[in-house]
Every structure is written in structure tokens, then in C-alpha cells.
Amino acid sequence: MAQFRNFRMVNYVVYGRGSFNQLDEILAPQRKGDAPMIFFVDEYFQDQQEFLSRIPLRGKDKIVIIDVTYEPKTSGVDKLRDDLKAEFGTVSGIIGIGGGSVMDTAKAVALMMTNPGSSVDYQGWDLVKVPGVYKAGIPTIAGTGAEVSRTCVLTGPTRKLGMNSDFTTFDQIVLDPELCKTVPANQRFYTAMDCFIHCVESLNGTYLNAFSQSYGEKAQVLCEEVFLDKDVWDDECDEKLVMASYAGGMSIAYSQVGVAHAVSYGLAYVLGTKHGIGNCIVFDKLEEYYPEGVEKFKRMVEKHKIEIPQGITKGLTEEQFESMISVSLGMKPLWENALGKDWESIMTREKLRALYERL
Amino acid sequence: MAQFRNFRMVNYVVYGRGSFNQLDEILAPQRKGDAPMIFFVDEYFQDQQEFLSRIPLRGKDKIVIIDVTYEPKTSGVDKLRDDLKAEFGTVSGIIGIGGGSVMDTAKAVALMMTNPGSSVDYQGWDLVKVPGVYKAGIPTIAGTGAEVSRTCVLTGPTRKLGMNSDFTTFDQIVLDPELCKTVPANQRFYTAMDCFIHCVESLNGTYLNAFSQSYGEKAQVLCEEVFLDKDVWDDECDEKLVMASYAGGMSIAYSQVGVAHAVSYGLAYVLGTKHGIGNCIVFDKLEEYYPEGVEKFKRMVEKHKIEIPQGITKGLTEEQFESMISVSLGMKPLWENALGKDWESIMTREKLRALYERL
């Protein structure tokens, strides 16, 4: 068995302010006959006609607005696939324009256009066996790292788990910091903290090597430059944050996230708490595990006047707590990365219950 | 015309101490029938039986020792291609194991296995029109960035110029810091400085954006950690230097090298000075253009007790000086990056002559 992951990179990256304008030219060689390109667009843009008009539609191309009220579900992915198959038979490619949920949906549907059955069948590691259709990711908010990851996280009937495979990685990403300009400050903060937190987790983990360390350190430094050193938000902040997200995503190659992500997965499963804000809610209480990172985080929260929600687990039923704990403890590699081989004796159900009660 | 380069990434990267042991497994799915894998190996390893025996030969696979006395020539590339075609007809792939010269030779021959004519015909930008055979790069010395670049620099009958194209990029790289362990300290220094110098050049250039800046900054910091902060050379140094080389190579995506490379190209063309040492000889005299970088460089030279050759242009003929100057001034994008649009009025033939005379 391989000791080190042979990491599948995104084939093509274009980075630059205004690079979104090159999309037509980038997609042209990927078009297969008259099969359309399908653009999955974050609902955030649904009334922004000026932005929508910049999407280079040709022939039967179609814009599909993606509802991001909840994080992507396997049922939603299957339905999008069924609808596209019914309408077009086949497509040239799927282009995801938005945050992590939209990019993950684009990856999943692109895979499901060619892989039989339900996306539920592919939640796990290396279960996808056939390349999907062409897929491109265009982030409009920075921090998830979904643009470079080999997964797309989906909530299924029994678990929240990604379709992790070399086929999941995008063929192309377009990193245009201009697209992030209008993101509301709160949302921008939560999403950027997804990056910052996973850097802290991976840099303090037991799974690290120099590849992931150098990417993680750079991503963390960029977040700190943007949220601690700068006093006004300007173009340079968006430019650096887009790179922080990319570098943070790359750092995952040979590292793993840790306590914040493991606990946050439980919140997401039971309460539907979104990934970005969920990580912040949890990380805010993790001074025991990541003292230096949590101290910096609290300074950023204060400087940017963010209100981290409190008391979100108040009044949950015993069953709900048990379910959260089980989902969280199921993320074994995350716990092992954070706490070492003996993690099960350190993070008992009781200790985790106490942590959930503080959130 | 595209404003930002759509950067072709290496498809697969494996990074890790001992990852060279995974080579057999990595190559297996790339083998086409009984067509052999050809391993181009740096002559440095020609008597190291233990290392050579670790190369996973199967069937008709062959090790070809590459003479690196001079940097790769178009004639040498064409001959290697002709020999392989005569012996095998076709091959499954070319694996370059060594420094920048060996990796560049591997890229060039892989392309020439499928592209007609001479490699001279493809020196330039985007002249290669057909993918080559599968190719993988395995650096055994860190700093050139050749493992991630979209070029392979070749000296032809009239010029030293790479085959720059999206097809030139490796399909796979194996980054195993253990392979760098036995590099002689002088050679290690010169090659690492290739990375450090190109970071200084690109970070001080006019062509920079946040993508290249973040890679360049990281690569430069890693070089400084290794050569200024550390007092003994240990495994961590090799691990960081391999990442510095990779990050330095990536930083080239949206940046350009500058004065040191432009001047050093002239030395290489007329005197055959190798790239790594040539850059050091030139950079040592560039305090006017890169004051901070040159100051750090001189501290590294002193700390590591490196003797930078002096007086190498003494006694050259008028014709040789003129030829060096012409080759160097031909590198227009490098000069423009370093000195701006008006570079021709700043770097006159007289000024460049005076610089060459100081080397």
C-alpha cells in the first residue's frame, strides 16, 4: 500500500483580477458537439443580471440557480443529474460558480452524469471508478478550499461524507478575486475562518509533512495579513484571501483537519449548521487544544466585530446529543490527527458531550 | 487574447521521504503493452548500484545515463529520440531522475517521440502541437523548479531557448527529499540559489500578482530558513528545500525572472556556464538592482563558505562580449519585468558590457 498519497492536481488554474472574462475562451475547446455547458450558479447571484449576463452562454447552454439554504444533499445531486439527463441526454461540462456548496454540487453532478446509481453509492474513498464530464470551479467567496480538493461533501440519508476520489478534482479553476468583492462581511469572515481553522488544525496535527506545512503556513499567514494587519478591506485583501483558500486547500494533501471539523460535522448533521459558521462556533471554545490559534481567532473576531452565535445546543434532546456525538466520533482520521493514536481514551463521549453543551 | 495565463499544472504530485519506493506502483497504470519505460538518470548516479537497483525496471525498460557536462542541447535531444525510436519504435514513457538538465532532457525527448522534425523547430512559445509520451520528473537536487515548469531549456544552433508549451509540463512528479541527501554542498548551494534568486527577481518585478507572490514569498522564506537560520544540515533542510524548489517553480506562473537570469543566459551561451553557478556569479554583483536580496545572498555565501568564481570574463574577445550582450538583451520579457517598459534606455549595451566585465 502507498505510504504517501499521489495527489491529483487541478489540471488548469487561471488566477487574476478579471480572469472570469476569459471563461468563454477557456471552455471553447471543452465543448463536445452541441452538448451544452451547464452553469451552476449560487442563488446569491440570481437577481444580479449584470453578473449573469457575463456568463458565456452558447447554443443550448443553461444556467441553473443552486439553492444553498442547506449544504448539498445526495438527493439534490441525484435530482439535478436526472433533470439534466432528461433535458439534454449528455452535457459538455458543469461549471460551478459560487461558494463551497455550489462547487461541491458541480463536482458531484459532473461525476454522476457518467457514474451509474445514486451519489449515496459513492460517499467514501475511491469508490468513483469512471471520470465524470468536464468540470470547472469558480469560487465567488474565499476559504473553503473546495476549488482544489478531491472531495465534494454531501449529506446523505445516513451520513455526511464526501465522494473522495481522483476523479472528483476539477479539470479547471478560475480564480478571479473580483468575484469576491461583494460578499457580505460576516459571510466572508466565516468562510475565511474555515481556511484559517483548518490551517491551525493541520499545522498542529500529527499527519503533517513539509509539503502541507508550507502550504498551511502560507495560507495562515495570508489570513492573518488580511484580518489582523490590514485596517480597511481593499482589493489586495480579496486577492490574498483567494490565494489563502487555494493554499489552504492544497495543504490538505498530506494533512488532516482536527477537533473543530470533527465537532462541527456533528452540528451540521443534527442541526444543519453550515460548515463555515459551525467551525467558528466550535473553534471559539477550543483553547484547550489550539491555544495560539484560538487566541488569534478571538482577536480577529473582535477586530471585525463578528458575533459568534452562542448557546446553539441549548435544549437539544438526549437523542440529538447522542447523534451528534456519534457522527463526530465517526471522523476517526480527524481525531487521530489531532490527538494521536490514543485519541479514543482522550476524547470520550462524556468529554465530547461537555464540549457540545458549551456551544 | 488572454490576459492571464491559464496555467497547466502537473497532473499528479507525490511528496514524501521514501516516496521514490512508490514509483513501480505509480508507473504501472501508465504502461502501454510491452512498450518500455525509459529512465533518464543523471550521470551522478552511474556508479551508485544501490540507487540504480531501486529503479523499478520491468520487461524492456531501460536506464539511460545522461551526461550533464553541458546543459541539454537540441542535437542531444534529437539523438536520444532517434536512438529510442530505432531500438523500441515506441515507448510507454520517459522518467527523468536528476537535476534540471536531466528533467529538461526527459521532457524534451518525451515530446519529440511524437512531434516530427527536430527539437530546434519547437524552441519558442506554444509551437508544440501534439502531446508527447507520458513523462515523469524526479528531482535529486532542489532549486531548479524544472519539476513544475512548462518549459525545457535547450541550447540550439542559434539560441538557448525552451520548448514552452502546455504539453511540456510533466504528467507526474515524485518529490522525495531523501534523494537529495548526498548532493555535494557546493552544488546544492548553487542550485538552491537558482530558486532564491528567481524569487528575488520575481518579487521585485513588475509582472507579479498575488498567486506568484505567495509562492515566491514562501520559496524565499524556505531558502532563508535553510541557509540562514539553520546551523547544521539535516533532513528537515532537504525537505524544505524540495518544497522551496517546487514553490519557486510555481511562482513563475504569473511572474518573470529578471536581471540575473538575463545576464546569466549570455554567460551560458558563450562560456557554457551552468545555470545555477552562472546566476550566483551574476547576482553577486547586482546590489544596484536587488539591494536586499543581494545582501542576504552574500550572508548565505559567507555562512556556507562558498567561493563564488571571480574574473570569469577576463580576456574574452570583443566578439565574445558582443555575443553575450546580444543574447542577454534578446531576453526582452526578463528585462521588461526587471526594469519596466523603458528598460532599453536603462540597460544599454555599454552598461551591460560594464557589468559583464565585473564578473
From TrEMBL, chains A, B:
Pfam families: ADH_Fe_C, Fe-ADH. It comes from Filimonas zeae. This is 3-deoxy-alpha-D-manno-octulosonate 8-oxidase. Residues 13-177 form the Alcohol dehydrogenase iron-type/glycerol dehydrogenase GldA domain. Keywords: Oxidoreductase. Residues 190-297 form the Fe-containing alcohol dehydrogenase-like C-terminal domain. The keyword Oxidoreductase applies. InterPro entries: ADH_Fe/GldA, ADH_Fe_C, Alcohol_dehydrogenase_Fe. The keyword RNA-binding does not apply. GO terms for molecular function: alcohol dehydrogenase (NAD+) activity; metal ion binding. The gene is kdnB.
